[in-house]
TrEMBL record, chain A:
InterPro entries found in the cross-reference section: Methyltransf_11, SAM-dependent_MTases_sf
Domain of life: Archaea
Region spans: Disordered: 52-80
Taxonomic source organism: Halorubrum lipolyticum DSM 21995
Record protein name field: Methyltransferase type 11
Alphabetically ordered keywords of this record: Methyltransferase, Transferase
Compositional bias per record (Basic and acidic residues), positions renumbered to this chain: 52-69
Ranges of residues in domain Methyltransferase type: 22-137
Biological processes per GO annotation: methylation
Pfam families in the cross-refs: Methyltransf_11
GO molecular-function terms, A-Z: S-adenosylmethionine-dependent methyltransferase activity
TrEMBL record, chain B:
Name recorded for this polypeptide: Aldo/keto reductase
NADP-dependent oxidoreductase domain location: 18-211
InterPro entries, per the entry: AKR2_Oxidoreductase (IPR053135), NAD(P)_OxRdtase_dom_sf (IPR036812), NADP_OxRdtase_dom (IPR023210)
Entry superkingdom: Archaea
UniProt cross-references to SUPFAM superfamilies, sorted A to Z: NAD(P)-linked oxidoreductase
Amino acid sequence: MDVPRTVATALADRPVAGKRCLEAGAGAGNATAGLLANGAARVYAVTNDRDHARTTRRRVGDEGNRSSDGDGNDEGGDDHADRLAVLEADLRAVPLPDDAVDVITAHGLCNVLDPASLSAVAEELSRVAAPGAHLVVDDYDPVPDGAAIGELFAVENAASELSRGRPALTFYPAAFLRRFFAGHGWEFERERTLLEPVPWTESHVAAHADQAVDAAKEGPGETGDALAAAARRLESEIGSESVGRMYGLAFRLPD
Amino acid sequence: METRPLGDTGHDSTVATFGAIALNWLEQEGANQLVEHVLDYGVNHFDVAPEYGDAELKLGPKLRQHREEIFLGCKTQERTYEGAWRKLDRSLNRLGVDTIDLYQVHGLEYEEELDAITDDDGALAAFREAKEEGLIDHVGLTSHGDPGLILDALDRIDDLESVMFPLNPVVAGKDDDEYDYEAVLARADERNVGTLGIKAFAGGTWPPTDELPEADRPFANWYRPVTAPDEISERFDFAAAQGLTSVVSAGDPKLVTMILEAAADYDGMDEAAQRSLIERVRHDDSPVPEQLHH
Ligand SMILES: NC(=O)c1ccc[n+]([C@@H]2O[C@H](COP(=O)([O-])OP(=O)(O)OC[C@H]3O[C@@H](n4cnc5c(N)ncnc54)[C@H](OP(=O)(O)O)[C@@H]3O)[C@@H](O)[C@H]2O)c1
Ligand SMILES: C[S@@+](CC[C@H](N)C(=O)[O-])C[C@H]1O[C@@H](n2cnc3c(N)ncnc32)[C@H](O)[C@@H]1O
């Protein structure tokens, strides 16, 4: 698979080659692919979603013969599967011992963690990180006022709050996560802008509408129906929208 | 309009090059008007080829009127010494000019063609003679084929002064070597060879002809172009921001004004915006590299 430019840019100044890495929240496998392409000795890709685990294994593990420079025989190119362990687990209780990894990536993770989970996950990341470890946190600033996609996120969050008692999405400002991780002992090293504007494509919009509808179905009857209908309406009205900013933060634990 | 040095040629090309294939779709009067329009924007580099229908003939009158203002690129798909000489004479006649500023090997696709043009009785031997005789000033090469082949050409042709190749955010988002035209740009820069970008405005491939017959396509390009002004301008900005010497305008005359506007307004594109564009389009189909089987 192709390593997205966002991931390549976020990792460009991080020492990954030969390192033990934890990809927190494996999702689509993008950051996993980036870590492997950059020569990670081992990548533990953790997600609590069975489909995401499978996707990551399929896109990155099985297909490791095409990495960064795509010539099919760069070092580490065809042994992706050997260096990758996809773990289906909760990041609030990472199944790794203390001091087990040198590099941690949280690429698009924090926005799917409500504040309580974020807090618990940060504890765990700090625990499994070895002294001197690097942490990469890539995420989205809050969507600017007036953005149409913001309405869809509002509906998704309303449905999630009503049915599950917590928001589906929380967009933490860069400055917030910077101070938050500093509070967990991570020294801030740098911030970069990865995307500006952020391209919310039709498939992203559709995926968020689907999430909203799923959550709405679990919610109370009439309100749930109204939220589901609103999500579908917004999906077709928005189509796609390029708005907001994705940032990349880098931290380091003291030796 | 911004200009950039075209490699070692000593010519500074405007950041937009006029793809004169657009004239093929116009009557003579419209063609004359389009050339004046392009010159009004300050564009000083034109690109034409004998394969573009009547484009050479239709460019002729205004080219002769404004010969001093135009750096003229032309090309040949001939691979042999004899063939290249014949085509060069023919182009000079059809254009009605004494010299061509940049004469290019057109549409290189196969390694055997590279062997052929570099052979003792290959096209490049004719190019070199023509250069000595003052009929052409500079030697270039174009390809929308495999980037590896263009890299080989850069390595093997010592007197190559420009290369024309595809570059757009769709191919930039793909990691495989077959899409790695950025490597071509980097190698050309190293060698101080001028770089001309094509397919900057390619949106993807056309639907299959049983869904959309060729006659019903709304644009003359053989790929599906982006067509909205915003998209045209971000595509232009992207191509120019990669560091190409110049971006060649698309083949359909309906798109030319939008491209000229984008070129006139060009003032860089920051990297986060470039990544944003790549991220938005990188899953699209790419019409290049393409085996055109000329
Ligand atoms: N018969 C063919 O194989 C063939 C190939 C290409 C285009 N065309 C005709 O040209 C029209 C528009 O061309 P386009 O859309 O490709 O161009 P474009 O990107 O819209 O315009 C860029 C200019 O660059 C030229 N160009 C593009 N690729 C090139 C290459 N590999 N080598 C040298 N020059 C190149 C184009 O002609 P070229 O692409 O010809 O080179 C054109 O002059 C089409 O509607 C089609 O009718 C025919
Ligand atoms: C938006 S995706 C991240 C994208 C991914 N990093 C990539 O590069 O493609 C978020 C991921 O975090 C996972 N996740 C969210 N909360 C989690 C938790 N408490 N424990 C484990 N995984 C979690 C989700 O299942 C999903 O796989």
